[in-house]
Design brief:
3 helices, mainly alpha
Length: 101
């Protein structure tokens, strides 16, 4: 499944939850002139789920973009300066030398 399709499903589900909670609030209020515990619970849960879907989507898109940028910059650095070694390799060698003494 393509990423675009997954995004459409995720956003469509969130929008449907928000629309259903708004509709439930209006219907409950107009029929009883009060929003009871049951409809209020549904409204709260559906809004929480919808906002969670939006938040998770935004978080992972941001983190994945950040990770791709870090990997690309590291690969570019390695291509431009192949003689520069990784700092973690130097730390491992220093630790090995200290353990031998």
């Amino acid at each position: 499944m393509k990423q675009n399709t997954k995004d459409w499903i995720r956003h469509g589900s969130a929008m449907a939850l928000i629309a259903a909670s708004i509709a439930m609030a209006f219907i409950s209020f107009f029929l009883t002139l009060d929003i009871g515990a049951g409809p209020l619970t549904y409204i709260g849960e559906s809004l929480s789920a919808a906002l969670g879907l939006f938040g998770i989507s935004a978080y992972f898109v941001d983190r994945f973009g950040q990770f791709k940028g870090e990997v690309r910059s590291e690969l570019d650095r390695m291509r431009r300066h192949p003689e520069i070694r990784d700092v973690s390799e130097e730390c491992d060698e220093d630790n090995d030398n200290q353990e031998q003494h």
